[in-house]
Design a protein that fits this description.
By secondary structure, the protein is an all-alpha fold. It has helices spanning about 15-35, 45-80.
């Protein structure tokens, strides 16, 4: 296929909030599973789990910011 025939897909942001919410839920579930596994983990593994869960919390904060941005974008789009 030649490059001239390839066109970028249109930007479909209609389900971004849903996807982000699903990602947040999945990340929370991963955090909970990791915390449960700490009961049988070594001290080193516990520290690794804590560091990973801290990164997960940061990721969740970022996704929540994206949800707010996406909501503002959708509101602006509706006003146009």
């Amino acid at each position: 296929m030649s490059e001239r025939n390839q066109q970028p897909k249109p930007d479909d942001r209609s389900d971004n909030v849903e996807k982000l919410q699903e990602n947040i839920q999945h990340t929370i579930e991963n955090m909970e599973e990791a915390e449960e596994s700490m009961a049988t983990a070594s001290e080193e593994q516990k520290q690794q789990i804590e560091r990973k869960n801290e990164r997960r919390r940061d990721s969740i904060d970022g996704m929540r910011d994206e949800i707010r941005d996406e909501h503002a974008f959708q509101q602006q789009k509706e006003e146009e």
